[in-house]
Amino acid sequence: MKFNFFKKDAVDFYTPVNGKIVPLEEVPDPVFSQKMMGEGIAVIPTNGNIYAPVKGTVILVAATKHAIGIRAEDGSEILIHVGLETVSLEGKGFNVAVKEGDRVSAGQLLIEVDWEYININAKSTITPIVITNSQEGKKHYAFTEEKEGTAGKTVIFTASV
Question: Which ranges carry the PTS EIIA type-1 domain (predicted)?
Fold first, then answer.
């Protein structure tokens, strides 16, 4: 007889923004496409704001408001990087609704985004979602095969031990 007292259930991470889901390898930036920061997936946003993909704690809010990091309750650390080369916008086009140390629930508003401004002034709106501690090898991440995502509704990946 086997006892799994310490076995943790899988944790679902939801799409943080409405849009087309694409593999991380399709992000036109080698830092992301070559997985230098970790495993992940990306969304080409169609509309809407950025929402928490999972319950956890905000561990990073970029000074330029273009990126946010969350440590999920299972220990996975997620970076949501809104657009490419958006650091140069110096916060314009973003309104952050949380701060470092805040506890968040899946589906909670993180960043209001002016996609029209980002589309005109940045390299791309594509939004990588990277598991920055995936290389530790403690968890297995299964990514969705869905092609379209709805923020807070579509599971984008699942983490399991």
Answer: 29-133
What pTM value is reported for the model? 0.93
**Alpha-carbon span 101 to 57, nearest angstrom:** 6
**Predicted confidence (pLDDT) per residue in 59-79, tens digit:** 999 999 999 999 999 999 999
Q: Could you state, in order of their start, the residue ranges of all structural domains in the chain?
A: 37-160
In 3D, which of 8, 69, 70, 80 has the Cα closest to residue 40? Answer: 80
Question: Does CATH number 2.70.70.10 belong to domain 37-160?
Answer: yes
Catalytic site residue 81? yes
Neighbours of 46 (CB within 10 A): 14
Q: Which of 81, 94, 111, 134 is catalytic?
A: 81
Are the C-beta atoms of 52 and 12 separated by less than 8 Å? Answer: no
Spell out where 16-144 has E strands.
18-23, 39-47, 50-51, 56-61, 67-72, 77-81, 94-96, 103-104, 109-113, 127-131, 140-143
- Residue 72 has a pLDDT of 97
